[in-house]
UniProtKB/TrEMBL annotation:
The keyword S-adenosyl-L-methionine does not apply. Pfam families: Peptidase_S66, Peptidase_S66C. PANTHER family: MURAMOYLTETRAPEPTIDE CARBOXYPEPTIDASE, MUREIN TETRAPEPTIDE CARBOXYPEPTIDASE. Residues 10-127 form the LD-carboxypeptidase N-terminal domain. This is LD-carboxypeptidase. It comes from the Bacteria. Transmembrane segments: none annotated. Belongs to the peptidase S66 family. Residues 171-283 form the LD-carboxypeptidase C-terminal domain. The keyword Hydrolase applies. Keywords: Carboxypeptidase, Hydrolase, Protease, Serine protease. CDD domains: Peptidase_S66_mccF_like (cd07062).
């Protein structure tokens, strides 16, 4: 079954930092593009920052999301924000309702906390993807993949090229996302079990010292001893500035486990050409092939 159909309504929300007014033209273009695809859009009372980085309180933003979940006309929800504030809504969400009334939820970066909290508290999968890519640098390609994958059950948006760092196969449910933001769940009720999982890590900003700090915290939490494999997405600043040691070398040094399967892909992360990763989705990687639970393959 397709995730969306033309003529349906989707909700656009900002659970992290409020958008700047300079982003309004981008949002307007996005809504126009979605209308051209046949989709209608609904916005909550506010999206744009009013006080510092806030456009609404944590409780108010959580209510906006629950209102979307409780609105039967809204088929899917796309977060258009990022930043630092998303974990503030977690205490105010009704996970029982969300479990009984599931809807596709999309977001990236700081929304890693919401995606993984949804999986931990409800068992539902959600989507690490930023819908603003539809009007970004690679708009034509993104729009084509979006329509084919969400309307027509093709798999272009959900499959991606990768290279093996070590190992040749791994299988499990994918959790994780942004390396910094995901760590905000550590020690909370929203931190998922890592046993038998595949961990995805990617980052926008951060130098060697910051990446080493985050990786060592994961190590000290025992994460690398429990997972079935590791996916390294795109580490934007690290790769753009060619920091040394590079992210792959740094990970291998800190993880210290040559038997842990690892792959590297630049297709998952903050780039305007980024693909979509299903958090809570079952994946199988073998040699040069990947398979997602709905049967998509490359």
């Amino acid at each position: 079954m397709s995730l969306l159909k033309p003529t349906q309504t989707i909700g656009l929300i900002a659970l992290s930092n409020g958008l700047s007014v300079q982003q309004k033209p981008t949002l307007d273009r996005l809504e126009q593009t979605l209308e051209e695809m046949g989709l209608s859009t609904v916005r909550p009372p506010s999206l744009f920052a009013k006080e510092s980085v806030y456009h609404a309180s944590d409780k108010e933003r959580a209510k906006m999301l629950m209102d979307f979940y409780k609105n039967p006309d809204i088929r899917a929800i796309f977060d258009v924000s990022g930043g630092d504030l998303a974990n503030g809504v977690l205490s105010y969400l009704d996970y029982e309702w969300m479990s009984q009334h599931p809807k596709p939820f999309f977001g990236y970066s700081d929304l890693s906390v919401v995606l993984n909290a949804l999986y931990t508290k409800t068992g539902q999968s959600s989507y690490l993807y930023q819908i603003r890519h539809l009007v970004g640098t690679f708009a034509d390609a993104q729009q084509g993949q979006f329509k084919a994958s969400l309307f027509e059950q093709e798999h272009a948006l959900f499959t991606f090229p990768f290279d093996w760092i070590q190992g040749q196969k791994m299988e499990g449910v994918v959790i994780g996302g942004n390396i910094r933001c995901f760590l905000k769940l550590a020690g909370t009720a929203y931190w998922p079990s890592f046993k038998g999982k595949i961990l995805l890590l990617e980052a926008y900003s951060g130098d060697v010292a910051k990446m080493a700090t985050y990786l060592n915290q994961y190590k000290q939490l025992g994460v690398f001893e429990e997972i079935n494999g590791l996916i390294l997405g795109h580490f934007t600043e690290m790769q753009k500035k060619s920091f040394q040691p590079d992210i792959v070398t740094l990970v291998r040094q800190i993880v210290e486990n040559p038997s842990l399967p690892m792959i590297k892909t630049d297709a998952i992360g903050h780039g305007a050409d980024a693909k979509c990763m299903v958090i809570g989705g079952q994946y199988n990687f073998k040699e040069k092939e990947m398979r997602y639970e709905d049967g998509c393959n490359r």
